[in-house]
Amino acid sequence: MSEFTRKTVSKDIFGRLLRNDGIFVNREAMRPSYMPDILPHREKEISDMASILVPALRGETPSNIFIYGKTGTGKTAVTKYVGKELVKKGEELDRKVNFVYINCEVVDTQYRLLQNISNHFINDWSERIPFTGWPTDEVYSKLRSMIDKNGGVTIIILDEIDKLKGDDALYNLSRINSYLERARVSLVGISNDLKFTEFLDPRVKSSLGEENLIFPPYDASELQDILKQRADIALKHNVLDDDVIPLCSALAAQEHGDARRALDLLRIAAELAEREGSPRVTSRYVRLAQNKIEVDRITEVVRTLPTHSKLILLAILLQEKHDKSTGNIGVITTGEVYDVYKELCKKIRTDVLTQRRVADLISELDMLGIITARVISKGRYGRTREIKLSSSADEILKILKEDELFEDLSKYKIQGQTRLI
DNA sequence: CCTCCACCGGAAGTGGAGGAAT
DNA sequence: ATTCCTCCACTTCCGGTGGAGG
After folding, report:
1. Does the C-beta of A377 come within 7 A of strand C?
2. A292 and A208, same structural domain?
3. Range with the lowest mean pLDDT among A13-27, A180-194, A354-368?
């Protein structure tokens, strides 16, 4: 390679990718965090929520709300949207309305929750409540005085409320109004777990559930509208084949009408097309995207598995390979997996878990969708689980090998018949 | 129709970690 | 600092079971 070519190549690697001859106009519009101006097919939910919260604009306390809906049904988007509008209207009417959004998956303890809400009212950086150090009830009383001093109506959104540890925090928050003189607080809890309220303190339950909103899943045609709207903003005109949006919608509709899933499919399909230099997104890229999402999911799950679950997974993998090479056509059973697993443990000098425990871990792997395990009866030869890998063995092996512990282990060969007949 | 295999899966208990209360 | 409590991973024990082979 001449001096000249090397220079141009290295100089242009980003230039070529940067030149906007791809498919996207505004990539952000396809991300889950993007907030569109219009939320299609959520008009009813928006107006329901608005009518519950409108007392805030008259300085009265709105009812607390509990919102339930599966992932990707627009709970968070609708709530944030209504909140934004409410604050805007409040400024117009000169009514003080505060809107605090907390994601309980990130802020999951009582202390951090109270700390976070309090800091929302403290602009001066040096005045802020530290991550740790204060007694919990002091933070609580600080919060009360902050809210009272601030006045007006404060609406606190607790997203993913089921992730919050302990219900003391909810109990305290739901009673805060009786300690306030000049201000009012109302709570909005969001969850995708309907059973969540069953385990709650009955007092919290009745106070939080003054109003309930249920967000139904989107159906395929509603998903199409959402995708069309986003595609208009995010993509160049006329880069999608006609069947791309219907396909994305149909696939996502099968997954309980998850709009986020639909958007991910479309975005990844477009990204794959762009990366391959294709001028158009075809249904082939949607299929590839779906595959990529699945592989990414499996990769992530397997990578973060605890050691013993990985060992069990490897045991299943080895057994499957062994069966294939010996032409054995029987199904893999719990007992066989357990035997191989024991050997693997011995090899790396790890304690062996009991078969009972291993059975539970196998069920977990099943629930994670890495394997399928269903109970079958082999008559005289007992009752057991039939265990199968649910995705490519090589793919999983590759991920397992990332763990240095499994580097050598994966070469382990099962000696002959592990079980006498 | 009965037996009996090779597990399933519920119940109860242990022990250690981590957080809250005193 | 110490005790208490709660959670979690795991063990022990054991009754239960679908159906091939007798």
Report:
1. yes
2. no
3. A13-27
pLDDT of residue A242: 92
Q: How far is the CA of A305 from the C1' of B16 (A)?
A: 21
* Interacting residues of A10 by C-beta distance below 8 A, sequence separation 6+: none
For residue A334, the enclosing domain spans 305-409
Q: What is the CATH number of the domain that holds A171?
A: 3.40.50.300
A275 within domain boundaries? yes
Strand B: list positions under 7 Å from protein Cβ. 3-11, 19-21
The interaxial angle of helices A244-254 and A220-234, nearest 10 deg, is 130
Domain-located, residue A402 = yes
My answer on whether A169 and A230 are in the same domain is no
Find out whether A244 and A283 touch, Cβ atoms under 8 Å: yes
Neighbours of A162 (CB within 10 A): 18
**Amino acid identity for residue A69 in this structure:** G
Q: Which pLDDT value is given to residue A79?
A: 95
The rounded distance, in Å, linking the Cα atoms of A161 and A300 is: 25
Inform me whether the pLDDT recorded for A8 exceeds 60: no
Final residue of a domain: which of A147, A180, A215? Answer: A215
Q: How many domains does chain A have?
A: 3
**Which tokens go with A404?**
């240095």
